[in-house]
Amino acid sequence: MCGIYLTNIPFTKDEVKSKLKTIQFRGPDYMGIQKQSDLTFGHLRLAILDLNVRSNQPMQFEDLVIVFNGEIYNFHELRNDLISLGYSFSTTGDTEVLLKGYKEWGAALVSKLNGMFAFAIYDSTSRKVFCSRDRLGVKPFYYSWIDGQFEICSQLRPISHNKQINEEAISMYLDCGYIPSPYSIYQNVYKLPPGNNLEIDLTEQKYEIKEYWNLKKVKDTDLSYEEAKEKVHDLLKEAVKIRLESDVPFGTFLSGGIDSALVSSIAAKISKNPIRTFSIGFDDAKYDESKAAANYAKIIGSDHTETICKPTDVLEMIPKLIAVYDEPFGDSSALPSLLLNKVTKQSVTMALSGDGGDESFFGYNHFRLVTYASKVTLVPRLLRKLASKMLVLNILGRRNQSCKGILNVGSKYDFIAGIFVGFDSLLKKRDFKWLSHYKGYQTWSENLLQATADLNIKLWLENDSNAKVDRASMAYSVEVRSPFLDYNIIEFARTLPVAFRYEKGNRKRILKDILKDYIPEEVFDLPKKGFAVPLDGWIRNELRKDFEENLTDDFLHLVPNLNIKKFKSMFRQHLDGEYDYSSHIWRLYVLSRWYQEFGFYTRKTAKERVLVYTS
Questions:
Q1: Any binding-site annotation on 332?
Q2: CB within 10 Å: which end of the chain, N or C, has fewer?
């Protein structure tokens, strides 16, 4: 787990060193900078495999040079294949395997890889740079290209840019809570989409992006339920096993959920010694899963560490969130994620997580909501519009006005999209042209639940969940590995009949039946709480002053396409306890802090500011 950098801009080594220092948390063990022809390579290493200096990067073999971030879990198999072809190895890690694998197979290498990765390989003979990002977008990859000059990096901050904000990206962020690939917060800086290669021809001064993997239409397996359960179990055991290889101490993240309990249980069975488990809890019982996690830990025999997250902990983590996420990031669960990794780093450097299980096995609350979509869209739209003006519904146990948007949706696929981009908006004008990048989700499956899961994987997983985990873990130099993100599991799960995963509201049916082999059902069969924070109450109480000081008129007028009048009304109603608009308020708050961090806005003094809630 590391940070990579590559450019053909003629920076000095000291300039590149200064750039890398801004993200040195990604790799505190070694900083490598190397000039090769008119290119400069930079690498920050977090040593996990082969801790010897021989595995430092940039690494060179004949006419190839590589900078690589991530882990190749099947590198032993690939190494043996290369040895049989006459290659020899001087390290015991995966970087050398990746480098020599490219020498042998070229671009065909990436289809052989099982891992999380983002890398760039320069071939001095052909004067070409080959880059690739893993199938699910676990590892980040930013690049800029202006008139033949380029930069590539694991994070946005080191990339030189003219600091021109992409106003369209701000609108995307206010709708989604993140900025989806291929866009970034800045003009002329992009994210390489998952499952894609980026090939740069230095002689011709051009680049090309080519897809090597994506979701596709599949047919349901003809396996029986019991056979499918056994297959899923075997795939999970293998995915956990290959992710346990490490030359540093490891542990697992353990919440009260099915996924982390299953990953931790399998890891405990495989490990020769008791594993370390880590969890975060809250004083608010509605959000706290720490007691369930403690029960799981006792049953599987792990050495368990529990940390309770208080509002003061959140305040302390906000500057860290703004500093390490680079772009505005509106998922408030990033805060406990940061705290969890901070605690974890005191004991281990690598941890397994349960991320990815909800996408493939229908775990999120919105899968219950989408089952109503076909019923809602059967009602003539005119009648639904009339109803939306008269009704305020209680959606998923939370009082809000999203029902107006829900009742106004056009097709059932609009309903699915609304789950991810919101049924209610802070924008003056919404434009979903950017969603065309994800339009395939409508054709991958005719089943609404599977179509929702596919969009979860292609849109939310990469841009929210994976970004959250990567930045939160890297902020404290922790490597997180997620067995459920093994592409073999993703692909096989999509062949399972929906009823195997979701039956009459029973989400994750097949995973629950597997977990029974490790933990009694009465212990784990609990309502899903998710990894959320009690933000709605905190905004009204403990964090209220900080929000009021940052969400001022002078800031709001800087935000393009923002419906200021609507936001002021929502903020006032939230503070008065009428509705829960915490997600919208949090996004604006984070954006304000981001504007300040990156020099786009300077907050006025207390005497000068105008508080929006009084306007």
A1: no
A2: C
353 annotated as belonging to a binding site for a ligand: yes
Residue 280 annotated as lining a ligand binding site: yes
Checking if the pLDDT of 413 tops 80, the result is: no
Residue 122: predicted pLDDT: 98
Residue 429 to residues 164, 202, 236, 425: CA-CA distances in angstroms? 21, 41, 44, 9
Whether 2 is catalytic is yes
In DSSP notation, 436-488 reads GGGTTHHHH-SSHHHHHHHHIIIIIIIIIIIHHHHHHHHTTT-EEE-GGG-HH
- Where in the chain are the domains? 2-211, 215-527, 535-614
What would the pLDDT profile of 70-109 be if each residue is shown by its tens digit?
999 999 999 999 999 999 999 999 999 999 999 999 999 9
Give dist(CA 499, CA 187) in Å, integer.
Answer: 44
Q: Calculate the average pLDDT of the chain.
A: 90
Catalytic residue among 2, 131, 176, 403: 2
Give the right CATH number for 215-527 from 3.40.50.620, 3.40.50.1370, 3.30.450.150, 3.30.1330.60. 3.40.50.620
Residue 247: other Cβ atoms inside 10 A: 16
Q: What is the reported pLDDT for 398?
A: 42
Nearest-angstrom CA–CA distance, 33 and 367: 47
- Angle at CA 427, nearest 5°, toward 533 and 413? 80
Looking at the DSSP assignment, which residues form a beta bridge with residue 507? 502
Q: How far apart are CA 369 and CA 613, in angstroms?
A: 32
- Asked if residues 180 and 458 have their Cβ atoms less than 8 Å apart, the reply is no
Q: Give which of 539, 531, 513, 552 is closest to 227, Cα–Cα.
A: 513
Q: Which residue has the tokens 């060193």?
A: 17
CATH-assigned architecture of domain 2-211: 4-Layer Sandwich (3.60)
Computed over its alpha carbons, how large is the radius of gyration of the chain?
A: 24
Whether the CB-CB separation of 84 and 59 falls below 8 Å is answered with no
Please give the pLDDT value at position 426. Answer: 93
Residue 95 buriedness (CB in 10 A; 0-12 / 13-18 / 19+):
buried
pTM over 0.90: yes
- Residue 528 confidence (pLDDT) above 80: no
**Digit-coded pLDDT (tens) for 140-158:** 999 999 999 999 999 999 9
